[in-house]
Amino acid sequence: MIKQIILVVLAVLGASLIATAQTAPENIFSYSGDSIVTNSNYIDPFYWDSQNVPTYSVADYSLSTQNGQYNYQIKLSNYKGSETDGGYYRIIDILYNNQNILSLKQSDGWDKVIRGWEPYRTTEYYIAYPLSPEATAVVFVGYPYNSEPELMTIVILYKGQAKLVLNKNYALSQIVKTDSEFALMIKKTVQEWMTPTIPYNYPPTFKIWKEGSVLKMCQLV
């Protein structure tokens, strides 16, 4: 009983300390002329050990920019023999003018956009949102394992290019998506519970949002 009271007090104190923390907004990526400039702080390497394994197609989509000038093809594939593992696909290929301009591969697997996020998704496998007439952000979500946050992968499509700008273990907690606003609320650690009503920890919430034609991120108060 005493141990539980101490844990509750520590959890409350932790929440109080976290509530005072705040970071200045930072660009996740930027532009330089017609090129996309990435920030390595937001890109972790993929875990991948499935080389030389046959693959099969999962889905194939067309995606155009807001001005209709740039048309991309998004192809999702999976490794044979991984059907019973977590996730629905492990390969993302993006093509422009029938040329592969970006290929992402991992062994842990990306998931469908489910668990309550269906109203915000563009297809069952990703969320797309225009940042400008020529730029589009495409968000893929990973498969959650145990108590670890799932992988979040964001690709920017811009003037015939496709660039990975974010690849981190972020747990999605809220989405705001309207004609004029786009934001993702995320947590870097999963909230755990001592009892069904008493949290064990209070992970801070971070916000990724569209401002101008870029995506920014900061920790919320």
Biggest sheet: strands side by side, in what order? 1-15-14-13-12
> What portion of residues belong to β-strands?
over 45%
Count of runs of 4 or more consecutive helical residues? 1
Terminal-residue CA separation: 32 Å
Radius of gyration: 19 Å
Give, in order, the helices and strands: HEEEEEEEEEEEEEEE
Q: Structural class, please?
A: mainly beta
Number of strands: 15
Spans of 5+ residues with little confidence (pLDDT < 50)? 1-21
On the 0 to 100 scale, the average pLDDT is 88
Biggest sheet details: 5 strands, antiparallel
Tell me, what's the shape? globular
Topology readout:
Elements: H1 2-19, E1 26-27, E2 29-32, E3 35-38, E4 55-64, E5 71-79, E6 89-96, E7 99-110, E8 127-130, E9 135-141, E10 151-158, E11 161-169, E12 171-177, E13 182-187, E14 205-211, E15 214-219
Antiparallel strand pairs: 1-15, 2-3, 4-5, 5-6, 6-7, 8-9, 9-10, 10-11, 12-13, 13-14, 14-15
Protein model, in words:
The structure is a single chain. Helices cover 8% and strands 47% of the residues. By secondary structure, the chain is mainly β. The strands form four sheets. It has a five-stranded antiparallel β-sheet with strand order 1-15-14-13-12, with no helix packed on it. The protein is globular. 25% of the residues are buried.
